[in-house]
Amino acid sequence: MTPHLSRLDQTEPGLRVRVGRLEGQNLAVKRLQAMGLCLGREVEVLRQGNPLIVRFLNAHVGLSKHLAQQIFVERRTQ
Amino acid sequence: MNPCETLLQSFSPAQKKRRIARASRTFALVGNPNCGKTTLFNALTGLRAQTANHPGTTVEKRVGYWVADHETFELIDLPGLYDFQANTPDERVALEVIEGDRNAHGRVDGVLVVVDATHLSRSLFLASQLIERKLPVVIALTMTDVAEENGLRVDAKQLELELGCPVIRVLARNNVGVSELIESLRHIKEPAPSPRTIGPCGTCGGCRFQSRYAWTDSVASRCSHAPSASRKTPTEFLDRVLTHPVLGMTVLMAVMVGLFYLIFKIAAVPMDWIDAMFAGVGAWLNARLPESEWRDLLVQGILGGVGGVLVFLPQICILFFCLTLLEDTGYLARAAFAMDRFMHKAGLPGQAFVPLLSAHACAIPALMATRVIADNRDRLVTILITPLMSCSARIPVYSMLAALLFPREPAKAALVFTGAYALGLGIALAMAFAFKKTLLQGEAAPLLMELPALKWPSLRTALLTVTDRALLFARKAGGVILLVSILLWTLSTYPKCEPPLEAHALQQQAEAAMAHGDLAGAEELEARANRITSHHALAQSAAGRLGKIIEPGLRPLGFDWQIGIGILSSFAAREVIVSTLSVIYGMGEEVENLSALSDSLRQATRPDGHPVFTPATSASLLVFFVIAMQCLPTLAVTRRETNSWKWPLFQLFYLSALAYLASFVVYNGLWLL
């Protein structure tokens, strides 16, 4: 069964999700991965909007909605 | 080396690179942003540090040293990094320093890597890349106190085993572990080959991040004992307020008002002291030295010019003190976050907010602060519009013109003042928008910034930064500003001429009055004679002739040749126009108070009997000063920050053209009314 992927900018705050796919290979996406938001990482949206705030690896990171649209996450079903 | 280069070099002590001491060992300091790197650097090197640009770039690095057991250690503080792949200018500089390059340093003797206990996995992502390069590495484990407060314990011994290099627990603020760290650096060696480090992941292309993070995650979980449930940190509520769309902006406004209050109100006290000190030294020199041209040059040219710039030192110190404190708490990142949505509309990134705020004190520190903007185009646009912020050198000019426009109506004068600030800001945002649509096309780079945990700031870090910046500014005043002051003084003094007949006659009347015992009358007459003499001397000087040459070009703006001299002289520093106008319109050198000056300016007339400072001329001059690029030091810093003459010249051209156009519209518009 393929997991259902949704965009990070459409994820409700407080929900813990996992990065399933990253789109694009621009510098910002690379930097985001170097900060630890790579495939498989658990991430939580703290505040939606533009820009939005996410938490991963115990760090709070602010990013613009445009960037969040390149990140696809899967919800944990179990 | 041509004179311009020499001028610039005297201006950027960075390049001048005074060899601090012959270092026997050189180390690079590497770590993520906000990992406690600066605090550790300061604990190790203290005041023995200099900020410098990496050769050929605008990436800043600090070099400091310390001596232990007759051995000198040099430490190069590199910009905060997440990755080590030469993707950004910061990363390229870090690579050059560590691998050795032809420009500045040989290969370093080792790397001191800061690993933040609260962000273990991410710190190891960077550290492991250095260990793999077989570089001698010592790891400073920081923030263990913060981690323990959150119930997270990191096992330094286990980490040492996993990584194959020494790991020293350091709490730089309390001086814990610093001497052990120095000892460890003395015996630094290549890391032990550890089978557990992952091999280079060149084979799996796109998943370089995933595979390395898989390894660092596993090391982190073996070395730390995490709390069973993540607890809410006490700052979480505060953080929610600061990043709230409405509340965050409210806090930001309050912080800005407070900062402006400190810069403009509190700084006035030490600024008066500096003013008084320079005046006192000038008077003392005048009394002690025999009358000569050298004395005039020393007192009026050098002391007056350099003093007029050094007077802004308190504002610059307060600005940097507050900004460093705010940055240290983690607030500035939240402020940039809150501003991002607004700045984005003008095509600017949120980070441009800090430089634009600083520019209200002085454009020079602001231009240096644009380094936080990662994207090159975004940074250029910010640099181009920075001079449009009303810096504090414009305050005396605004005060004078506001008093001219609305004498004895402080409320309206205050409105003029506010209007001038708003006009600068408005034009700046409009120009940023225009540049982003034409010259430097493209949207602002998407925001991506860590919001570091909120904490109490370190006073020591703030004081060290202030000292560093104050010295940089003072050296600048001793360099380029000194030269410009001497030049301007020479232009407005030579060629010399005889006092006019009118002054001669007044002088004789004064002597006659003195003979009759009319002391007050004699003084009055003598003062008038002096004013006429200095006015005449200025008109005949090279600056005066230059003013007359440019007069036809300035007449459409409502300016005469005398205002022209004021504008020319204000290239050294904008506020110079106030003292220049007071000389020209016969107040003498001493401007006792601004309202006396504006009274005398209001009475000034043209040869045809019309007043010089009509409301239209005053308003036109005000608009001109809001917009025009009248600051040589700013141009020199723009050249340094952009590494080319193209951008400072473009800046000069577009701001001058814009100022001319706006003044023309205002003058002729008001004239018609």
Query: Share of helix among residues of chain B?
Result: 55-70%
Spatially, the strands of the biggest sheet of chain A line up as 1-6-2-3-4-5
Largest sheet of chain B: 7 strands, mixed
Largest interface chains and counts: A-B, 29 and 35 residues
The tally of beta strands of chain B, per DSSP, is 10
Q: What Rg of chain A is obtained from the alpha carbons, in whole angstroms?
A: 11 Å
From the spread of the alpha carbons, the general shape of chain A counts as globular
How many beta-strand elements of chain A? Answer: 6
- Give the overall pLDDT of chain B as a whole number: 83
Class by alpha and beta content of chain B: alpha/beta
**Within the CATH hierarchy, at the fold level, what is the topology of chain A?**
SH3 type barrels
pLDDT averaged residue by residue of chain A = 89
The gyration radius over C-alpha positions of chain B equals 29 Å
The number of helical runs of chain B is 31
Net shape of chain B: elongated
Query: What is the CATH-assigned architecture of chain A?
Result: Roll
**First-to-last CA distance of chain B:** 55 Å
